[in-house]
Target: Glucose-6-phosphate 1-dehydrogenase
Amino acid sequence: MTTSPHSDAFVFFGATGDLAYKQVFPALQAMIKRGHFDMPVIGVARSKWTDDQLRDRARDSLEKHGGVDADAFKKLSARLQYISGDYQDDATYQQLHNALGQAQRPLHYLAIPPSMFKAVTKGLAKSGCAKNARVVVEKPFGRDLASAQSLNRTLHESFPEEAIFRIDHYLGKEAVENLLYFRFANTFLEPVWCRQHVASVQITMAEQFGVQGRGAFYEEVGAIRDVVQNHMLQVMALLTMEAPKNSDPDSIPDAKLQVLNAMRPLLPTEVVRGQFQGYREEDGVAHDSQVETFAALRLHIDNVRWKGVPIYIRAGKEMPVTCTEVLVELKPPTPPVFDADDGAASNYFRFRLSPDVLITVGARVKTPGKSMTGTDTELIAHHHPDDEMTPYERLLGDALAGNSALFTRGDTVEAAWRVVEPILGNAVPIIEYQPGAWGPVETARVIAGADRWHD
Ligand code: NDP
Model:
C-alpha cells in the first residue's frame, strides 16, 4: 500500500523531549539494525545543544530502552545532526533547509506539543522544507470535534492529506494488525460476523495501576480522551468495518470512516464515568476533580451488519488486571439441542492485544459419560509472547515508506470525536469506585456482565 517513493531524510522536532528519548531513538536504532534505514537524521529543538550532545542523549536513551547495539549506534551517530532554534523563528527553518541539502523527500516528525503544530507546519511551508515532504503528527489530535477540525485545517494549509500521518501508536501493535488479518484472511468468520450471530462485542482496556505520578497530565484528559476516542474507537472500527475494497491506501480508512459514521453519537444515559478512590490525593490532581479514570459505554452501530448488537467499551485504571482484550460473543444455537437447561452454550472469539498476543475461540465439548451435557473449552488459535517490533518502529518505518494503512485519516479522527462529543465534560456524573474493582457497580447499567472476565 505504498503511495510514493521512500522518504530520504528523517527530521524530528522535539529532539530533546521525552517522547524522542523514550521512543524515537530506540525506533531509529531498531530500523538501522534491520537494515531498513539509511538517511540523514536531523533533530530540531530549542535547547542550545551540539550534535555531540544529541548523540550522548541518544546513547543514554538506548541504554535505558533496550540497549545499545554498537554497530547500529555507530551508523546512527554518523547520521545524526542537531539544529538549535525556536519553532517561531524563520531562521530555524533556513538552517533546516540548508541541512537537508540533497534530500528531495524529507519526513518531518512532530514529536512536540500540539500548540506548536501551526508554527512548525507554516515554517516548513514558507522555507520550502514541506515540498514533497511527509509529516507525522503525535496524539492528542484535538480535545473535541472543533479543535480536531481546526488542527486538520492547520495541517492542510501546508500539507495535502496524503502527506499527513497521524500516529495512534496502538494501531502499530502486531496484535492489532493480526486482528485485521484474522478477520479478513479466514472464510469461517465472515458468515457469523453480523447481528444474526453476534450477541455482543466488547473491548476492555484495563490497567492495574493508577496515574503513576502523571496526575497533572491526566487531569487534562481523562479516560475518554486518553484512550477511548482514539485507540479504542479505532480498534472497534477495524473490528466492525466492512472489508477494504482493494489494496488502495485509502481502502482501510474509507471502510473505517463508513462504520464510524454509522456509530450513533453517545447518550449520557449509555455511559458510566468512574473515578478510583484516592485519585484526588494524587499530585497535580484537584481535590474536587471531576475527571474520569474509568469509562464504560454502550455503543450502537446503525448499519445492516450490526443494528441491535450491543457494542461495549470499558477502560479504566486501578482495575483487577492489566490487559487489553476484545471479546466477540456469539448467540447460542437456536433452537438449543443440548445444554438447554443450564443455558451454557456460549461461543466467542477473544483477541488479547496486550500484554501478550492471543486469539482464542470459546466452544462447548461433551463431558465424558452417558448424558449429553458439556463444558466450556477454549481453542487457542495463536499465542505470541510479545511484539517483535515496537509500534514506533513499525509506524515510523511505514510513514517513511508512504504506507498510511495504520495511520488515522483526518476524517476518521473527526468521525470518532463526533461519537464521544455529547459525553465530554461533565455531562455524565462521576461515581467513585474501589481500586481493584471493575469500576463502579453502576457499570452494570450499561454493560451486561460488567464484572465478567475470561482468565
Ligand atoms: P516534551 O515537553 O518532553 O518535549 C517538547 C519538545 O518540544 C522539546 O524538545 C522542546 O525543546 C521542544 N519545543 C517546545 N517548544 C519549542 C519551541 N518554541 N521552539 C523549539 N523547540 C520547542 O514533550 P513530549 O516529548 O513528552 O511530547 C511531545 C508530543 O508527543 C506531545 O504532543 C505529546 O502529547 C505526545 N506524546 C508524548 C508521549 C510521551 O510518552 N512523552 C506519548 C504519546 C504522545 P526544548 O526542551 O529544547 O526546549
User: Anything to note?
Assistant: The radius of gyration is 24 Å. The chain has two domains: 9-138, 171-390+409-446. The mean pLDDT is 93. The CA atoms of residues 50 and 327 lie 51 Å apart.
